[in-house]
Specification:
heterodimer, A: mainly alpha, ABC transporter involved in vitamin B12 uptake, BtuC, B: alpha/beta, 4-stranded antiparallel β-sheet, 12 strands, globular
């Protein structure tokens, strides 16, 4: 755990030092100490915000993934499964299509709203059916609602070129050009999500024994589910709002964490968050360095590297069945 | 004396199929009561109603005299532990961690883990004879060892009433005996009230103080093993032709099914 914190610090330093603008480490440190020394405002205008946001988004996605896999007892569960990403995408697309807005701030609000509405719908559909005792109805409702939202998004995107152009850039997930302006609200949502996730940790440990035994141990199932879903929704929604949908972290970070700190969620959840932050920053730095002036968006780097890493994990048989 | 558990006028349904109609049953403190009955007779359903896992359609379940419906999940869990038929073994978890989760109802955000909890977990591991396995991964245990670990978890819960749903399923005969001896020692040494569901009638007769035969939405028979395991009741409840003889080893009823008549 201490090693993970150290790794996050290393990644933060790398993220501040490396980039498409070549600046000497001394200049970066000088700029950090005194913003007036900032060459071309690269450090405070670009690297500090994207590092802070990268840490936040990675942390959110890692924690959300661990809570998600604990709630559904599904090792393939990804925060996207609750329709959160699909809801955010549709809201962003509607914004562009109807109002023609594609400013970073408007996109952020739209994504946040879309994500939250979508997950409330998913929760409602699951609760109306066979209820929340088994994780299966939730996953099915999430998948179904996601499919519907993706279909609507595709329809809008394909029928309007301007929308397609704006959507295309947003949907890969990037930290480039993001500033700290207006992310306060997303950060607030993320913070609430983290608090809920921590409060859900003990319940995740008992839910891992099966619903019946968890109830026998005095778990209030409805409360545990609502708390967990609220955490997942808030964390994923704020991540999606800041960077656009970013896959793989929510799916893989918990698996790596499980190997490092094992199955107790009071360690697993924070470790997964730290791993998420490391991985996101690392991929963002890689994207900046390999792309030169034309950066490769972090979402693309992650999908390519994440895919390879995940195949490696699967081939070595290290995926734990939950 | 207030019974440990009591159902009054209980109607239970599972997916709208009625299972029990206006059932009355009392479980007194201290003994081992085993629910037996044919497949689909509802014995596990009844156990779940006792354990607050199933909400009755009508009627009441009383835990030490107070209606279950009015109690919080946590306060029930401090007085009653239930081991379901198929608990899930969590991944990357040691036996000690697994057993520690039995302390769940006694903890909260504001009452963290204490040395007292550790002592209780150690005692539960010792009582079930798995102290040596404490640091092993729960997923690597054999069926018999794992069942002991689950029973240790239930013991760590420190509830005076313990419900076990088919604790011997999937185990070979020697491990079935092993688990039932353990259940009896928990009952005799800790004074725990045990209610369980078993399939093997002779083993049920050997290890229970009282047998309750359920079927057709009601209690068919209720009493000591010798009172209940009679050819007539076996025919009525299980559609089984059998002779009942004293078990040469324990003196409890031994069921000997009749030989098939080949024409």
């Amino acid at each position: 755990m201490i090693a993970l914190v150290g790794l996050v610090a290393v990644m933060t330093a790398l993220s501040l030092l490396l980039g498409s603008n070549l600046i000497s480490p001394y200049a970066v440190v000088g700029a950090l100490v005194d913003p007036a020394n900032d060459p071309g405002a690269v450090v405070w205008g670009s690297r500090v915000p994207r590092t802070v946001l990268g840490l936040l988004v990675g942390l959110c996605l890692g924690v959300a993934g661990a809570v998600m896999q604990g709630q559904t007892r599904n090792p393939l569960a990804d925060p996207g499964i609750f329709g959160v990403s699909a809801g955010a995408s549709l809201a962003v697309v509607i914004g562009v299509y109807v109002v023609g807005t594609s400013s970073v701030l408007a996109t952020l609000w739209l994504a946040l709203a879309g994500a939250i509405v979508a997950s409330i719908v998913v929760f409602g559909v699951a609760a109306l059916g066979r209820g929340l005792s088994s994780p299966v109805p939730l996953a099915i409702a999430g998948t179904a609602v996601s499919a519907l939202l993706v279909a609507l998004t595709s329809y809008l995107v394909l029928s309007d070129e301007t929308t397609l152009a704006a959507y295309r850039i947003w949907v890969v997930g990037s930290l480039s050009g993001r500033t700290l302006d207006g992310v306060g609200i997303a950060a607030l949502f993320a913070l609430a999500g983290l608090v809920f996730a921590v409060a859900n940790v003990r319940s995740l440990n008992s839910l891992a024994l099966g619903t019946e035994l968890a109830r026998g141990l005095g778990e209030n199932l409805l409360r545990a589910r609502i708390l967990g879903l609220a955490a997942i929704t808030l964390l994923t929604a704020s991540a999606v709002a800041i960077t656009g949908p970013i896959g793989f972290i929510g799916l893989t970070a918990p698996h790596i964490a499980r190997r490092l700190v094992r199955g107790d969620h009071s360690w697993l959840v924070p470790a997964s968050g730290l791993i998420g932050a490391c991985v996101l920053l690392a991929c963002d730095v890689i994207g900046r360095v390999i792309g030169g002036t034309a950066e490769v968006p972090v979402g693309v780097v992650l999908t390519v590297l994440g895919g390879v890493v995940f195949i490696g994990i699967v081939r070595r048989g290290r995926i734990a069945a939950l | 004396m207030t019974p440990a558990l009591e159902v009054r006028d209980l109607t239970l349904a599972y997916d709208r199929t009625p299972i029990f109609d206006k059932l009355d049953l009392r479980i007194d403190e201290g003994g081992i009561t085993t629910l037996i009955g044919a497949n689909g007779s509802g014995k596990s359903t009844l156990l779940k109603a006792f354990g607050r896992l199933l909400v009755p359609t009508s009627g009441t379940v009383l835990l030490e005299g107070s209606p279950l419906r009015g109690l919080s999940a946590r306060s029930v869990a401090k007085r009653l532990a239930i081991l379901p038929q198929k608990p899930i073994t969590p991944s990357a978890t040691t036996v000690r961690e697994l057993v520690s989760r039995g302390r769940h109802p006694h903890q909260s955000l504001f009452r963290p883990w204490t040395p007292g909890d550790s002592a209780i977990v150690d005692a539960a591991l010792a009582a079930t004879g798995i102290t040596d396995l404490a640091e092993r991964d729960a997923g690597a245990l054999s069926g018999g060892q794992l069942q002991r670990a689950w029973i240790a978890l239930v013991l760590a819960q420190e509830a005076p009433i313990i419900l076990l749903d088919e604790p011997t399923t999937f185990l070979d005969l020697s491990h079935q005996l092993d688990v039932l001896r353990l259940v009896r020692s928990i009952n005799r040494e800790r004074g725990a009230t045990v209610v369980m569901v078993l399939h093997d009638l002779s083993l049920a007769g050997r290890y229970s103080d009282r047998l309750v035969v359920v079927g057709g939405g009601r209690v068919i028979a209720d009493g000591t093993p010798w009172e209940v395991l009679t050819p007539e009741i076996l025919r009525d409840a299980f559609d089984l032709e059998a002779t009942v003889i004293p078990d040469p080893a324990s003196g409890t009823p031994l069921i000997v099914p009749a030989v098939d008549i080949v024409l």
